[in-house]
Amino acid sequence: MNLRLYLSELEEGFEFEKAVCNHGFFMMAPNVWNPIRKTLSRPLTLANSSSVMVTISHPPIHPFIIIDVHGINNVREADEKLIFQQVRRMLRFTSKEERDVTKFHQLHEAAKESGFGRIFRSPSLFEDMVKSILLCNSTWERTLLMASRLYAMQSMLADRKTRSKKRKRDQEPKKEACGNFPSAKEIASLDKEFINEHCKLGYRAKWIIELATKVERKSLNLEEMEKGEMEPEQMHGKEECSKVTIVKEAQLFYNRYSSFQSLAYWFDLIQNYEAKHGKLSELSRSDYNRVGGCSYMNQLKAD
């Protein structure tokens, strides 16, 4: 079944390809970008906490996003609402995001001309946070592998759960459950030994379980973080910084883009990536592991 998510007047200049392929998260499981068809496929969560595979696309010039929901003939209203909510988060379809993009483009002409302004996200903040942990002290190749293993682990557990329910009901035809990136509830129910057995996350498993447990116990309110209602100190846990963590040249260079310094830096980083590897949206999945971090500081010093 196809759903249509209509764009607002402010989003008329929206470019789907550029809104997706601007951050390494689009390369991480369970996201699958098709460089030929310019589509993004991945599972999304339904109202009953199960998952469904969708394919997202944007026909040129059309005022809507198409969401092809696989395996469902009629999408319930509650599920449609949740699917739209997740897609809006991924593509940053909110009035606040539109205002921010407009303000950023007023400061950064090159970004405006290239259509850059939205940083791709996951359907949930929790998935973004876990993937950020996977980036810690790791090569990009291993980060991609760890994300794939988490997805495979959740798919295995979801399939076991579905088969168990069917055995209790009757002998229905066997049908595999749709896997997804693990939720906070699912992670919190596991121990680090089990996660490392299947995903080999190392010490990151402990951090991810602690994060999931805090979310489940409501000691960490992701909804408040999402709405920007938490103080910066609560969100970032700032500590004393050293010369190793802050580079004065970068501060001076990016202050011109206040309060969009991070977005301006990411634009430069993407330009650097694509100068070395070609357009990210045109890479094959086998090439993803060679797209690693690179320093922009030499150019900053030259400027």
TrEMBL record:
It comes from the Eukaryota. One of its GO terms (cellular component) is nucleus. InterPro entries: DNA_glycosylase, Oxidative_DNA_repair_enzyme. Gene3D superfamilies: Hypothetical protein, domain 2. Coiled coil: none annotated. One of its GO terms (biological process) is base-excision repair, AP site formation. GO terms for molecular function: 8-oxo-7,8-dihydroguanine DNA N-glycosylase activity. This is Uncharacterized protein. The lineage of its organism: Eukaryota, Viridiplantae, Streptophyta, Embryophyta, Tracheophyta.
